[in-house]
């Protein structure tokens, strides 16, 4: 199995999942130019990460790669141990929220020129994006006030949340009102799988917001 990632992106999530499985996998580190190369576009025509190539099987899109890893390594419990309909719905709820809502909200910060050309208007767009991100993050903050992890036990949803918090710190988003994130960051950065991923991708732990 080969996993393609750009360091610091949402691809940290399936990368950590593979570390949790103990699987023998190959890692390919890409950058924003190489994902647009003809070679990589034959793997993922969207020119995005993550992607998994496993023999003749190609899997793209973040949640899909996680589902594929879980199906191949069910004993790793990357989605937790609660196999009840409610338990499975909870993990998919948080993954969908993080992937479709929160992740998407960062797009104007990463590439405002892709939305509007006028630079003054870009500043307004980025300010609105930060406001939206802050509003969305109140939900996981509230959840972490009730329990240590989003679904009660550590899952890939927690890794995804951690990645978005690293982005929030990168863009200096003020989350000082959210008191549960720093303790969560400390807990999740103690995870051996995530620590290995941070080292392999050449990243640094953020420690706190």
Using brief descriptors, characterize the structure shown:
single chain; 4 strands; 52% helix; Glutaredoxin; alpha+beta; 209 residues; four-stranded mixed beta sheet; Glutathione S-transferase Yfyf (Class Pi), Chain A, domain 2; globular; 9 helices
Task: Please explain how this structure is put together.
By secondary structure, the chain is of the alpha+beta class. Helix content is about 50%, strand content about 10%. It has a four-stranded mixed sheet with strand order 2-1-3-4, covered by helices on one side. A hairpin with a 2-residue loop joins strand 3 and strand 4. The model has no long low-confidence stretch (mean pLDDT about 95).
| Individual helix count | 9
Query: What's the number of domains?
Result: 2
What does the main sheet amount to? 4 strands, mixed
CATH classification, class level of the largest domain: Mainly Alpha
- What order do the SSEs take from the amino end to the carboxyl end, as H and E? EHEHEEHHHHHHH
pLDDT averaged over residues: 97
| Rg (CA only) | 17 Å
Short description:
By secondary structure, the protein is an alpha+beta fold. Helices cover 52% and strands 8% of the residues. It has a four-stranded mixed β-sheet with strand order 2-1-3-4, covered by helices on one side.
């Amino acid at each position: 199995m080969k996993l393609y990632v750009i360091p610091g992106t949402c691809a940290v999530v399936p990368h950590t999942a593979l570390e949790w499985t103990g699987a023998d996998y190959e890692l390919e580190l890409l950058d924003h130019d190489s994902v647009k190369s003809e070679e990589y576009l034959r793997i993922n025509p969207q020119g995005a990460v993550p992607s998994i190539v496993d023999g003749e099987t190609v899997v793209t899109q973040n949640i899909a790669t996680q589902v594929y890893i879980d199906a191949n390594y069910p004993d790793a419990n990357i989605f937790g141990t609660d196999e009840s309909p409610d338990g499975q719905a909870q993990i998919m709820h948080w993954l969908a929220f993080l992937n479709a809502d929160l992740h998407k909200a960062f797009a104007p910060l990463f590439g405002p020129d892709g939305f509007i050309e006028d630079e003054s208007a870009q500043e307004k767009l980025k300010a609105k994006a930060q406001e939206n991100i802050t509003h969305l993050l109140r939900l996981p903050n509230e959840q972490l006030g009730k329990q240590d992890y989003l679904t009660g036990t550590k899952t890939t949803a927690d890794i995804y949340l951690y990645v978005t918090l690293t982005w929030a710190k990168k863009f200096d988003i003020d989350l000082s009102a959210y008191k549960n994130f720093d303790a969560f960051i400390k807990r999740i950065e103690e995870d051996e799988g995530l620590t290995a991923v941070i080292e392999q991708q050449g990243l640094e732990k953020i420690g706190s917001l």
